[in-house]
Amino acid sequence: MMPDILQSGQWETRTVSPRGAVELSLVSPVPARLEALGTATRPKHLGASRDALAFPASAVVSGRPVSVRAVCGDDGVFPGDCTVDLAVDCDQGAQSLIIRGIPVAGHSSAPLLQLDRQDGVITVRPGEGGNATLGLGGWLARRSQEAGQALAPTITELVVDTSPSMRHHQERVEALTRFLSDLYTTVGAPPLRLTRASINGADRDGVGAVAPGPAPQGRRVVITDLPLEAGAAESIVIGDPTLAQALHGPGAPFLIPDQDAWHELLRRDPAFTSHSLEALAALAAWICQPSQQSMGVAR
Predict the structure, then answer these.
(1) For position 169, what pLDDT does the model report?
(2) Residues 114 and 76 reside in one and the same domain
(3) Which of 21, 93, 131, 186 is the most buried (most CB within 10 A)?
(4) Counted domains in the chain
(5) More confidently predicted of 148 and 159
(6) This protein's superkingdom (predicted)?
């Protein structure tokens, strides 16, 4: 049977046979290998170049999407304007797709396809299930899900400290809120309620210290530059870790993301790697823990 030829960016979804095997083959202008993450059984690479692989269709299980990715062969990133082609063969040639011109530039591990079992068939979607590129929060959520460790964030309200000392940290505030918003959207959690703290009646540049208490329901977290006093809400501290530890007594629970985490949160390119997962592990775990159960951590 002649394959369906699809152009990247010009299709949204296809369904393929849930029987037999799924075979995938990558054509790239630079050395690259193919990966399938999230299958119930380990995929088998076909050949030493590792640019083709196969797995039984039964390895795509309901509720656990499979991500097909191209990984740059030299552990760097795909060069500017780089595109790849992907061939998909199902049930011994009964159904075939060729997807042309998939953009991978700037990635070290680029999403090509997502496979998901729904209503007795396998649904194929581009990229991360409809989005060619996810932000860092969405990327982390997908990789965690594929590893069988789906994230379940517990923060319901995010309060941003607006005191004058926070002016210097605006870039970090924006990076952190963007990361959380993307993560929540990807996992399908209710959106975070984002508020700005009022200090002595001022919504910006108020004099004094921000000190909202814990939320009566849900989990309230404050983004601030110094840990809060005992009895206040939990906080993510984005100021100087040394100063924060020196000034902090037996106060409210807090987390200080380390420099590796900030490097990932502030990066402008989408070249996320396994190091990104490691760097964000402590932050991801803290985001998902029950309210008021955290301990102060300095990294």
Answers:
(1) 93
(2) yes
(3) 186
(4) 2
(5) 159
(6) Bacteria
Residue 67 burial (CB count, 10 A): 22
Per the prediction, the chain carries an average pLDDT of 85
Beta strand 83-90 pairing with 21-27: antiparallel
Residues 3-38 have pLDDT tens digits of 889 998 888 899 988 999 999 999 999 999 999 999
Q: Domain for residue 140, yes or no?
A: no
Please give the model's pTM, rounded to 2 decimal places.
0.63
Last residue of a domain, one of 79, 98, 132: 132
Q: How buried is residue 156: exposed, middle or buried, by Cβ count under 10 Å (0-12/13-18/19+)?
A: middle
> What token pair was written down for 166?
């926070």
Q: Which domain holds residue 255?
A: 157-287
111 and 139 Cβ atoms separated by less than 8 Å: no
Strand order in the sheet with 32-37: 14-16, 121-126, 109-118, 66-72, 32-37
- Collect all residues with Cβ–Cβ distance below 8 Å to 156 and sequence separation of at least 6: 190, 192, 193, 215, 217, 218, 219, 220
* pLDDT digits 0-9 by tens, 44-79: 999 899 999 999 999 999 888 899 999 988 767 788
65 contacts: CB under 8 Å, gap ≥ 6: 38, 114, 115, 116, 129, 145, 146
